[in-house]
Structure formats: C-alpha cells, structure tokens
C-alpha cells in the first residue's frame, strides 16, 4: 500500500486551517502531520515533521507565505509547496514561483481540485488553477526580441550606420569604435551598396526613419 502524503497546513485563520485539515485528514491518501498559524511556525514545523507537501497561505503574520516558502524550499528541496490564497494577482503568482512554489490555487477551490493539486505537487509536477494557467504562461514568456533594422547589414555595419545617423563624421566614428578610418570607409561603402542608397544623406534619412541615430 502506498504511504499517505504527509501534509503541513499553514494558515493564520484557524477556521480555514482546521476546516481544511478536517476535510483532508480522513482521506487515505493524505495525512495531516502539522498545522501552522504563521510563516515562521511553518518553517519550524517543516523542519520538525519533514512533510511531503506544505499548503501555504500567503498573507500571514510574523513571516508571510512567500518568504516561508523560500525558506522551506531552500532547507528541504524535496518538499513541495502549494500556495493557497484568496488573491491571484500576477505579482503574487510570480513571487510564489520565484520563491519555489510548485502550485497555486485559490481558497475557493473544491476538495477534489485541492487533492489533485497536492498529489501533483507531491509527484514533482507543477499545478495552477485553470484561471491562472494562461496568465502565468503570459507573464513567464519572455518578450520577443525586436528585429534588428536592416538585417542585411552586419552588426558592425549597423553600429557604423547608427553613428552616421547620429551625425558623426568618419574620423569621429573611427575614434568611437576604435577602428581605422579606412575600415570605416569600407564599412560605409558596403552599407551604401547593401541598402542601394544613393549617398550618405539618403542613408541618414532611412536610418533615422528606422529608429537609429538617437544618441
């Protein structure tokens, strides 16, 4: 028979804390081993009882749930933390993730949803309420890198073009980029050819239109 999941519940509201314990402890797959009324107590009890999963409220006295999560995960990497709270703003979600939480559910979640989340976190998975999943993905997805203007140019040629658009002379560009005047002239010739520009003035106008030269 599989051993039950050892659970620590941390919440400063006794009615909710004890109610959740009464709801979960009778289940054969879960054993509530401790209850904490604040974040500091949660950290201490996690060290004492070594639970498999901690259900952690966010807003608690003495030490909030985010900081408590950080300490529990640092001291006991094998312990999964399921953040259970009233709010679901992006800042709280990100803070919980950064602190090491593996799950995040609202307090209004049904018993079956909470049990599934506890089981998933215990198994090493990550779970978030359906209403949060899309928003978390959106927050965590890095923004796309903006396309470089004039991709046909090399990075060096783009640097030179940027300085041309800023009104620098050839000697000034050479000095700023630590290159010889001849190299700068060669770069400018290449830029004119690749952009099929008629002259330097034409290049400056097109570069500024593309957002270059703003020094």
Notes on the structure:
Strand 1, helix 1 and strand 2 (30-36) form a beta-alpha-beta unit. The protein folds into 2 domains: 5-140, Response regulator (Rossmann fold, 3-Layer(aba) Sandwich); 155-209, Arc Repressor Mutant, subunit A. The chain is rod-shaped and about 80 Å long. It has 10 helices and 6 strands; from the N terminus they run βαβαβαβαβαβααααα. The protein starts with a strand and ends in a 6-residue tail after the last helix. It has a 6-stranded parallel β-sheet with strand order 2-1-3-4-5-6, sandwiched between helices. The model has no long low-confidence stretch (mean pLDDT 88). 51% of the residues lie in helices and 13% in strands. It has helices at 14-24, 39-49, 65-75, 90-99, 111-122, 130-140, 155-165, 170-177, 181-194, 200-209; strands spanning 5-10, 30-36, 53-56, 80-85, 103-106, 127-128. The longest helix is centred in the last third of the chain and has 14 residues, at 181-194. Keywords: DNA-binding, Phosphoprotein. GO terms for molecular function: DNA binding.
User: Strand-residue fraction?
Assistant: 5-15%
| N to C succession of SSEs | EHEHEHEHEHEHHHHH
CATH topology of the largest domain: Rossmann fold
Low-confidence stretches: none
The dominant shape is rod-shaped
| CATH class group of the largest domain | Alpha Beta
Calculate the terminal CA-CA distance, rounded to whole Å. Answer: 70 Å
Number of helices: 10
Oligomer: single chain
Q: Any idea what the CATH architecture of the largest domain is? A: 3-Layer(aba) Sandwich
Mean pLDDT: 88
Query: What is the topology, as strand order, of the major beta sheet?
Result: 2-1-3-4-5-6
Domain HTH luxR-type: 146-211
Pfam family, one: GerE
Domain Response regulatory: 6-122
Modified residues (4-aspartylphosphate): 57
């Amino acid at each position: 028979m599989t051993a039950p999941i050892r659970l620590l519940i941390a919440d400063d509201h006794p009615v909710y804390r004890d109610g959740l314990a009464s709801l979960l402890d009778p289940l054969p797959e879960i054993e509530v081993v401790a209850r904490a009324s604040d974040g500091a107590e949660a950290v201490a009890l996690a060290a004492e009882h070594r639970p498999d999963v901690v259900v952690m409220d966010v807003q608690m006295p003495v030490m909030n749930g985010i900081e408590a999560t950080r300490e529990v995960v640092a001291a006991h990497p094998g312990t999964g933390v399921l953040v259970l709270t009233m709010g679901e703003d992006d800042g709280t979600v990100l803070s919980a993730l950064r602190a090491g939480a593996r799950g995040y559910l609202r307090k209004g979640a049904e018993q079956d949803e909470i049990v599934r989340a506890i089981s998933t976190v215990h198994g090493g998975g990550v779970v978030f309420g359906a209403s949060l999943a899309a928003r978390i993905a959106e927050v965590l997805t890095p923004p796309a890198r903006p396309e470089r203007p004039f991709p046909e140019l090399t990075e060096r040629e783009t640097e030179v073009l940027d300085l041309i658009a800023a009104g620098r002379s050839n000697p000034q560009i050479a000095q700023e980029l630590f290159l010889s005047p001849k190299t700068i002239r060669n770069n400018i010739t290449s830029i004119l050819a690749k952009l099929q520009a008629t002259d330097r003035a034409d290049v400056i106008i097109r570069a500024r239109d593309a957002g270059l030269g703003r020094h």
